[in-house]
Write a structure and sequence with these properties.
The protein is α+β, with helices and mostly antiparallel strands and 181 residues long. It has four helices and four strands; from the N terminus they run ααβαβββα. Strands 1-2-3-4 form a four-stranded mixed β-sheet. Strand 3 and strand 4 form a beta hairpin.
């Protein structure tokens, strides 16, 4: 036989578990609904993923521009060829460096690489700009005595910033397409 205290403990434990389950479902619901438009369908019924795969991304000058373009192509098409373009994505980039941890001799021990990209989505049907946006990425790195280490650290920072900006652009364009295209 079980005592009344044991029954009460079991009832409290099951209530706590039920409340925890309900609480976690309530917390997860907004996150799931917030992500759905990017992977759902557009108002005309096409899948956002398919429309994104059909965007023609123009060339961007420079090594970082090429890296940004490659990141966008891979994230929208999975590395394959875009087919049936309806939109063109035009991107211009601006790069800058900020020195940090400057010593009394004037040598910087670190730098922050800054990448800013202004982009516009152009409808190929009427050649009109349908969406504009801006993406910003920053990446810090340390400077060392060997020159190769500095070059490699800078390249890694540029790649990280390009990835951040590509994700920002992809999310902005997908958000627009999920409500308009």
């Amino acid at each position: 036989m079980s005592s009344p205290d044991n029954k009460r403990r079991k009832a409290l434990r099951s209530r706590r578990q039920a409340l925890a389950l309900i609480g976690s479902a309530l917390l997860a619901a907004p996150l799931a609904s917030a992500c759905q438009p990017l992977y759902g369908s557009t108002p005309n019924g096409a899948r956002v993923k398919d429309v994104m795969a059909g965007i023609d991304i123009t060339e961007i000058p420079g090594r970082v521009g090429q890296r940004l373009r490659n990141e966008l192509i891979f994230s929208t098409t999975g590395g394959g060829r875009a087919g049936g373009s309806v939109y063109r994505l035009e991107i211009s980039v601006r790069e800058s460096l900020t020195k940090t941890l400057v010593s009394t001799t004037g040598d910087a021990q670190g730098e922050i690489y800054f990448l800013e990209a202004n982009y516009k989505l152009v409808s190929l049907a009427d050649n009109k700009i349908v969406f504009r946006g801006k993406g910003v990425g920053r990446a810090a790195y340390d400077r060392f005595n060997p020159i190769f280490s500095n070059v490699r650290a800078r390249i890694d920072a540029e790649n990280r910033a390009a990835r951040i900006v590509a994700d920002t652009i992809r999310t902005g364009v997908a958000g627009y397409l999920s409500g308009q295209a």
